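Here is one chain, start to finish.
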Amino acid sequence: MKYHRKIDFSEQRSAHRKIILEQTIQNLKKRAFDAEYFKDMENAAKAILKMIPKKSSVGIPGSITVREMDLVNKLEKRGNKVWHHWRPELAGKSDRVIRLKENNSDYYLTGANAITTSGEIINIDGVGNRVAGMIYGPDNVIIIAGYNKIVHSVDEGIKRSKDIAATMNAQRISSATPCAKTGVCTDCNAPRRICRVISIIHYRPWQTAITVMLINQQLGF
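Its structure:
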């Protein structure tokens, strides 16, 4: 019996993703965002640490992507003051003060629920602190997104935000919402509904410097 060599197509997949990401970057730039491509999260993390001065304060809202890159630990280890409301000691307590400090930091690191190939950034929040911080507050905003966040339209981005990002976050926090059980958004009116604020950043807001880092990997929800 002959055994055929296993064929690896990962190079072709990566090359195709790179084309889409680079096209998206060009369209983000047309909308006045700074935008950069990275082949993996390790290189993106190095660039972020180089971009942020060691004496700067950094705000990090509820981003899975940022935590997958271990940026909280990396920044704290080298001396940055990091404000983030996922600190274990805040569990079950009011975190409003910390969320406000996040939004008043020198740098704001966050992910995105979806980014269109034409350069629009879509997010859904329950509290609203994350979308607020991305639009106005910090002097410098860095948005980090893996290839899985790329969509072809705003409508597709909103659908992705609800059906994928929101449902997975509902499951993460054991929210008493239908989507946490079914994995599908039903536009519920549950008391613990987490889809409460939708933001679409069509162009970079005038007074906020925003850098978008697109990574050729699957990251976050």
